[in-house]
Design brief:
The complex is a heterodimer.
Chain A (H helix, E strand, L loop, with lengths): L9 H12 L23 E5 L5 E6 L5 E8 L13 H9 L2 E2 L2 E2 H10 L3 E6 L4 E8 L3 H13 L5 H17 L4 H13 L13 H5 L3 H11 L5 E7 L3 H12 L24 E6 L5 E9 L8 H13 L5 H9 L6 E7 L3 E11 L3 H17 L4 H18 L3 H13 L6 H10 L3 H11 L6 E6 L1 H8 L5 E4 L2
Chain B lengths: L10 H11 L25 E4 L5 E6 L5 E8 L12 H8 L11 H7 L4 E6 L4 E8 L3 H14 L4 H20 L2 H13 L13 H6 L2 H11 L5 E7 L3 H10 L24 E6 L6 E8 L7 H12 L5 H9 L3 E10 L4 E9 L5 H17 L4 H17 L4 H15 L5 H9 L3 H11 L5 E7 L1
Parallel strand pairs in B: 2-6, 7-11
Antiparallel strand pairs in B: 1-2, 3-5, 3-6, 4-5, 8-10, 8-11, 9-10
Helix pairs in contact in B: 2-8, 10-13, 10-16, 11-12, 12-16, 13-15
Classes of the chains: A alpha+beta, B alpha+beta.
């Protein structure tokens, strides 16, 4: 952070006053050239690999007396089979419930006493243990990290508690219309694939989870040759490397984890269809419209993302927001996006409106998706989408923790190390022809699944004619 | 206005916000070991400038990243509404619907076209507009923010369309959401007279009929330079920014004293209860006790009590209700301060296989324990450490620092040094925690709301 109070420079002020006096309103002028700082400050990033294959990434940032350290592996819920759904979430929770010499209670006491945070969480494609706290606690933080990563206790009594909580949370989530719509959309799009169930699993699959299944899963996915150790903040690379060697060098190499289930069917069978999830008490319908999308490794993902930005991903600059919110006042928000996972996840549009306006909102979304194919992003729209992408990229990487998150994401998906540095140039190199191609290739309103959560007795008549309607309970 | 931001604090976020709002004043103590010793408080370099029209400008340069956060804190919130509720929040929307020289939605598009992030939020006390941008865009941000305050255009057409958007926001946040129902009912129960009893987003019937004239009058009354704090933190040049602000905001006309709500909440003389029926699987228990307003010397002791009850998996509420009894999915309690009154809020999500009576019994048992026994030395130290680390962590983003210094100036009339905050936290004793529990967390001062099937 900056140092002492700056002196006022009268000379500069006088010059500035002159330049202001002659200017047109700033909103009528073209955007200034954006100054692009390097994503990683020179000399601050260190990469190494231990003899057991464990990669180590250190990003030094001395501004605050804080550190974040962690270990990430390249497997998560996507590596489960459908009948074991929820195992990755369950394993992550179990790792937080006792490790090394400390049981669940002692571990919580030890972490909280440092004012630190311990988070173990799994996504579709990765699982990560993260600890953040004061840099002066680096040694005990590393002690906890190595215990949680290498020596979780997986006690039977804790498994009972964790399973009960996971089941209760699955039931509680049905109280949230936004969660319900996402879960039922997954089921509609991927009936025979792991992606068809929520990442925390289903009641049937979670009931079968045990301490042993968590121990086995942990043993398969937490292997040094498929893991990344990371540290960010007020710490030197030398100090981190010393800790890494001391606490992780004797971690034994093992077989690379298998990739999990095969990819979903690239274009799930069936034309447009409608699922109504009956919640008679709701005054607002939660709406999702989705079809198959693309994987994280999709070569033209930047062009796809820019196309999506114009259609519905670009917040207040998007066509969908313009039509549904600004012009029609139908909703508070509408959003579209690709869920890019190791295997192709969905392309989804989400919104909500008062029940009586549901059909109008659905029709508007479908019409905008069709229009995007016939009238793909104009040069002006694409220019806006490019600057939005470049600018929000810079803003999103304001903290070193965020930069490290970006670097780990590249490792998780085996993308080039320099992807963050080249991102802005790749965005600028994306042409109108490329985004037009993406709109034609990737938007398929004619075969979208439409899922609506709300009172079925009102919704079913409104949605007739869009496709076969199935009414289900939450 | 913006989907990504909350117009008020849903229960799940109350405590994150309480943590931000809860740094009250307190006597400086001996400088014990603290994480703040080893680095300089960035806010120590902030400059406060007051323009002749009363506008306060806070500037703090930090060139570590190319980001600058620009925030306009209008000191008006739902407590200042006199006829239609939800007016303050409605402005959070109308301010994006065009002014004399800017078309509807153009403000947002111009900022987004430069890659900026913008939004606004409203609370009981403040309406805050912000842009987080790269430094090249700051001049445009200043011009646009000044333009809409100088020349806002409230038309019937825009109001008609935007009130529907607000009503959708209300359905989403409150009417169709168990925690939203609980929070709205809890405030309406805990306060009988003070306008803090109203939902920030407004009652549905008011939003449905509010008029252009009422909007214009509200705007003319409160959107005045002598009621605004501008806070700028990050990668920019102070002299240049101040010059631009003088050229724009500096020309706004001030007015005399800003009218303020005169109503005080009368003392509560016994527990209040309300049930809300809703189709749900996981009932919600919410409770509130009256607590002091922002800037009160008891703030740190209440924060420490909050951390002991809710800070991490070793906290009393998690340990007892979630982990041991397996009755709740979550259970937390914390101090929320507002300018004219505070609340100590508590909430729990009852497991679908649990019982709300049991959750309530266990919850209030833990509150009673805070009154009856002093907390242990280890718990006290742990809570203080958690508060200190979260305070330091809050300095990592320009946006958070800009919010902190603006809130400081609104609350204390000055930027409160980090060292002073840390010292006040370190000075809290076990007796202090027990004293504030006995003073505020008493049964007769309690309001309890249950959202049940």
């Amino acid at each position: 952070m900056s140092g002492a109070v700056r002196a006022v420079r009268m000379g500069a002020l006088a010059l500035l006053g002159l330049s202001l006096a002659c200017a047109n309103p700033l909103w009528e002028q073209p955007p200034p050239q954006v100054r692009e700082a390097p994503i990683v400050r020179p000399g601050s990033l260190t990469r190494s690999t231990l003899s057991n294959g464990l990669q180590v990434l250190v990003l030094e940032d001395r501004r605050l007396p804080l550190v974040s350290i962690g270990v990430a592996v390249r497997r998560g819920a996507g590596a489960e089979l459908p009948d074991g759904a929820g195992l990755a979430s369950f394993t992550a929770e179990m790792m937080n419930r006792g490790a090394g010499d400390r049981d669940a209670r002692a571990l919580a006491e030890f972490v909280d006493a440092m004012g630190a945070d311990l988070d173990v969480s799994s996504g579709w494609d990765s699982t990560a243990v993260t600890l953040s706290g004061l840099s002066r606690d680096l040694d005990p933080l590393f002690e906890v990290l190595s215990d949680v990563v290498r020596r979780p206790r997986f006690e039977t009594a804790e498994a009972e508690r964790a399973r009960g909580e996971q089941l209760a949370a699955l039931e509680q989530a049905k109280d949230d219309p936004g969660t319900l719509v996402a879960w039922h959309m997954a089921r509609a799009l991927y009936p025979d694939h792991r992606y068809g169930l929520p990442s925390p699993g289903s009641p049937e699959s979670v009931k079968k989870l045990t301490a042993t299944s968590a121990r086995d899963f942990h043993g398969r996915i937490f292997v040094p040759n498929d893991a990344i150790l990371f540290a960010t903040g007020d710490v030197s690379a030398e100090t981190v490397m010393a800790q890494a060697r001391r606490r992780f060098e004797d971690w034994k190499r093992a077989a690379d984890p298998d990739a999990g289930p095969p990819p979903p069917n690239p274009a799930p069978a069936g034309g447009r269809r409608v699922v109504v999830v009956d919640r008679p008490d709701l005054g607002q319908a939660q709406i999702a419209i989705a079809h198959e999308g693309i994987a994280r490794s999709f070569p033209d993902r930047i062009a796809a993302a820019l196309m999506n930005s114009v259609v519905g991903g670009g917040g207040f600059s998007s066509r969908l927001m313009d039509v549904l919110r600004a012009e029609a006042g139908l909703t508070y928000g509408v959003w579209s996006g690709f869920s890019m996972r190791r295997q192709p996840g969905p392309f989804q549009v989400s919104t909500f409106t008062r029940v009586a306006e549901t059909r109008r909102a659905v029709d508007m979304v479908l019409a905008e998706l069709s229009r995007a194919r016939q009238s793909p992003p104009s040069e002006e729209e694409l220019t806006r989408a490019r600057t939005l992408a470049v600018g929000s990229f810079s803003l999103s990487l304001e903290t070193s923790d965020a930069v490290m998150g970006g670097l780990i994401d590249l490792e998780i998906y085996d993308l080039p190390d320099d992807s963050l540095d080249t991102y802005r140039a790749r965005v600028r190199a994306t042409t109108q022809a490329m985004t037009a191609e993406m709109a034609r290739d990737l938007l398929h309103p004619e075969r979208a699944a439409i899922v609506v959560v709300g009172p079925a007795d009102q919704l079913v008549p409104l949605l007739e004619g869009l496709g076969p309607i199935e009414v289900v309970q939450p | 206005m913006r989907p990504s931001r909350r117009s008020r604090f849903p229960l799940a976020l109350v405590f994150a916000v309480a943590a931000l709002l809860a740094w009250g004043s307190g006597a400086a103590a001996d400088a014990a070991e603290d994480p703040g010793e080893s680095f300089e408080d960035p806010a120590a370099s902030a400059i406060t400038t007051r323009l002749p029209n009363g506008l306060v400008v806070l500037t703090l340069e930090d060139h570590a990243t190319p980001v600058v956060s620009f925030q306009v804190w209008v000191q008006v919130g739902s407590k200042d509404e006199t006829w239609y509720t939800g007016l303050a929040h409605l402005f959070e929307h109308m301010m994006f619907k065009g002014s004399k020289n800017i078309e509807p939605e153009q403000h947002a598009r111009l900022i987004q076209a430069r890659g900026g992030r913008l939004n606004a939020w409203t609370s009981q006390d403040f309406t805050v507009y912000f842009e987080d941008v790269t430094s090249e865009t700051l001049p445009l941000v200043i011009a646009l923010e000044a333009e809409r305050i100088a020349n806002l255009r409230v038309t019937q057409e825009m109001l008609t369309s935007e009130r529907e958007v607000v009503l959708e926001e209300r359905r989403m946040r409150t009417e169709d959401k168990p925690s939203g129902r609980a929070y709205e009912t809890l405030l309406a129960t805990a306060f009988v007279a003070h306008p803090y009893r109203r939902p920030v987003i407004g009652w549905r019937s008011d939003v449905e009929v509010v008029t252009v004239e009422a909007c214009q009058d509200f705007f003319d009354t409160y959107y005045r330079p002598n009621n605004i704090i501008v806070s700028i933190v990050g990668d920019f040049d102070t002299d240049e920014a101040l010059e631009r602000i003088r050229e724009t905001f500096g020309k706004l006309a001030s007015r005399g004293p800003i009218p303020r709500n005169p109503t005080l909440e009368p003392a509560q003389k016994g527990e209040r209860r309300a049930d809300v029926h809703f189709d749900l699987r996981s009932p919600v228990l919410a409770a509130a006790w009256h607590a002091p307003p922002s800037g009160h010397p008891d703030a740190e002791a209440l924060d420490v009590a909050s951390a002991i009850l809710s800070g991490g998996r070793s906290s009393r509420l998690y340990r007892n209700l979630v982990y041991e009894a397996q009755q709740a999915l979550y259970a937390e309690g914390g101090y929320m301060e507002m300018q004219q009154a505070g609340l100590f809020l508590a909430y729990a999500g009852v497991r679908p296989d649990g019982g709300i009576e049991e959750v309530e019994r266990l919850f209030f048992q833990q509150i009673a324990l805070m009154r009856e026994e002093p907390v242990s030395a280890a718990e006290l130290e742990k809570a203080k450490r958690q508060l200190e680390v979260s305070l330091v962590s809050g300095l990592s983003k320009a946006h958070a620092v800009a919010s902190r210094i603006a809130l400081d100036v609104a609350t204390f009339g000055r930027i409160r040094p980090l060292a002073e905050r840390l010292a006040a936290i370190r000075a809290v004793s076990a007796e202090d925690v027990q004293r504030v529990a006995r003073t505020y967390l008493v049964d007769s001062q309690r309001s309890v709301v249950r959202v049940v099937p």
